[in-house]
Each structure stands twice: as C-alpha cells, then as structure tokens.
Amino acid sequence: MLFHFSENPEIREFAPHVAASHVGKAPLVWSVDAAHAPGFWFPRDCPRACCWRREEGGPDAAALLDGGARMHAIQRDWLAAMRQCALYVYTFDSAPFVLHDAEAGHWVAREIVRPLSVSAVGDLIGEHAKAGIALRVVDDLKPLIAEIVGSGLGFSIYRQRNLA
Predict the structure, then answer these.
(1) Global pTM?
(2) How far apart are CA 9 and CA 36, in angstroms?
C-alpha cells in the first residue's frame, strides 16, 4: 500500500501534475510508502525536517534522534497550525506506481489513480507520540537542517521555502 496526505477529504482521483518543486519535469501522481508516511503528518505547507537512523550514522546522529529511531522538527510558528490541522490519508494500490526515491520513500505514477480509501489522520502530535517519533519544536529550523544534512542520518526536508 502507498499513501497520499491532504487537507481535502473529497479527492476522487489523482491526476498527474507538475509539482511546484519539479517545474520542467514530467507530470506525476506522488505517493509515499508506509515507512516514510509519518513525514507527512503535518499541514501541507509546513516546513519540516525529518530524519532517521541509518547504518553509517555516528554518535552525533544518535543525539539528533533524541534516543529514538526517528525525529521530526518544525518551527514554533507552525505549532498552532499543526494542532489545528484536519489531515486525511488516501490509500492507493501500489500497482500503477514506480519507486522514485528510495531514501525518502517516494513513489510516482504517470496515470490517473483512484484511492482505495480515505480517512482522517487525527491528532498529528498524538500520532507522532504513538509512533515513538520525537517531535522537536524549534525557534529556527535552518541550523537544525544543516546539522541533520551533515549527520549521516537518512533525511527528508519539506517545504523549506516556507520558512519565516
């Protein structure tokens, strides 16, 4: 199974489109695998840094994870939006998708895809806690992003252009 997250609970089909971050590339339908889905438990436009343990991560990497296997971070100015966000998860059959980025768990399709189901995610902060994911709230995300990128951890950085 693959997933797509949206604040719109009424999408009946997903048509290939060119994402703002992929101008000039082929139109695609984007999805994410189960292991990386928690990286989308945020309001759509929320800048965030997500990182996880890899074999080659050193002692500095372990400290970034706050003792767990995965850590997500947002800036404090997005905390209220995260608490108020009504987010929905769409489930897809994986058949029309191909792997696009193994590190981030991104899959793409080049055809219209209809979801198998849609359901509310619920309390986004609570979902992080239930999954054992450390959620760090910081005043300035940029220094933490730089630390994560140089750490040897696996990571995905989303919506960095929206940082205040």
Answers:
(1) 0.90
(2) 21
Residue position matching structure tokens 């292991």 = 35
Enumerate the domain spans of the chain: 2-162
Rounded CA separation 9/87 (Å)? 8
DSSP 7: S
Length of the chain: 164
Q: How far, in Å, CA of 150 to CA of 98, rounded? A: 29
Q: What is the Cα–Cα distance from 39 to 18, expressed in whole angstroms?
A: 21
Dist CA 39 CA 131 (whole Å): 12
Quick one: which H or E segment has residue 79? helix 79-84
State pLDDT tens for residues 48-78: 999 988 765 555 677 788 778 899 999 999 9
